[in-house]
Amino acid sequence: MLHSHHGLTTEPGAERSLNLAGRSLTALPEELRGMPALAHLNVDRNALQQLPEWLGELGRLQSFSAYDNSLAAVPAALFSLRQLRVLNLADNGLHALPDTIGQLGELRMLDIGHNHLTVLPDSLCTLAKLEFLYASDNGLAAAPAGLDGLPALRYLNLTDNSLTGLPEALG
Predict the structure, then answer these.
(1) What one-character-per-residue DSSP string does 94-153 give?
(2) In Å, what is the CA distance from 1 to each residue of 10, 19, 24, 72?
(3) Does pTM surpass 0.85?
(4) Which of 15, 40, 64, 73 has the most CB atoms in a 10 Å sphere around its CB?
(5) Distance (Å, rounded) from C-alpha 56 to C-alpha 118?
(6) pLDDT band for position 37 (50/70/90)?
């Protein structure tokens, strides 16, 4: 059983969606490890400076939102979540995304806006199901050349960056 101030339980059949937004968390509760059926996790507007490697143990996670925290990096384990469809890492302090983001083959929505990214990994261009990419307000000087090859992409926002151009097919 989780501490009452989290308002959660780890009993069989527990919630598949968990909203821990705005609770001043400085770390993810260890008890989440006991919730393998968790499909949706929202930890927006907290004080998280890092995410634990065990996040990768939540193999059924389909959406993860950590908007408006203080993350400078994300653990490699996050990119082993093969069922992840929605990933929101906006408004953090991210300086880079690992190339392993390309392993998220089910990803449809990626929000990485309002960070400190200077480059996007080329592996983003392998995410064939990606429909929504928001990377506004970073320090991007260029967009990956293969963005125009994303067949499902319907929304792309790269405004408020330092772009000197776009891939020819996008420009």
Answers:
(1) -----GGGGG-TT--EEE--SS--S---GGGGG-TT--EEE--SS--S---GGGGG-TT-
(2) 6, 17, 20, 31
(3) yes
(4) 64
(5) 26
(6) very high
